[in-house]
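User: Please run a holo structure prediction.
Assistant: Happy to. Please share the sequence and the ligand.
User: Here you go; the ligand is heme C.
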Amino acid sequence: MRTRDRLVVCIVIGVVALSAFWALREPPSSRSISEDAVFPTLTPEAIPLVTGDESIIDIFTRSGCPVCHLIPGIPGANGQVGPPLWLGTTGRERLRDPTYHGSATTVHEYIVESVLEPQHFIVHGYPEHTMPAWYGSKLSALALQKMASYLEHQEEEKRIESPEK
Ligand code: HEC
């Protein structure tokens, strides 16, 4: 009888020790790191300098924007990490958003600001600290102007109206 009791105690201790071991095995901090790893990361070393003399397709493609963004008219730009870049449709909403505290007054300025200083405004429903913050060192002023001029004219409907693209 006493040996049976001791056996039960041993089993209880074993179960407690095992569950403690299990809980310690995966601390919450390591879990959030692996969640972050789901999003593609781009390092500045992977991106060449973009001068702005390239075609508009090359300007976006070399910069790596298609990895994370859908961009109408840019082949292969079907990224889902960030919002679709049809700023002709969404740009004005951003400027009107009560949580927008950047300094842009036009959609064009908002796009340039979003690329150079993405931390100013995080689009609702999308992850922060994901849009790279180092594009200022990779894109010339001309490249940025061309990107903004292109994106501010993209409309959500355009994509649906021109399926041949
Ligand atoms: C690693 C992923 C990633 C890459 C690469 C990336 N972006 Fe983003 N971008 C995001 C995410 C996520 C957001 C939404 C969160 C935020 O507002 O920062 C975003 C937001 C934006 C916005 C604001 C969009 C809106 O609807 O208000 C613009 C504009 C933008 N990106 C342009 C670009 C351009 C141009 C490039 C290439 C030069 C680029 N992004 C590269 C992830 C990325």
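The longest helix spans residues 2-25.
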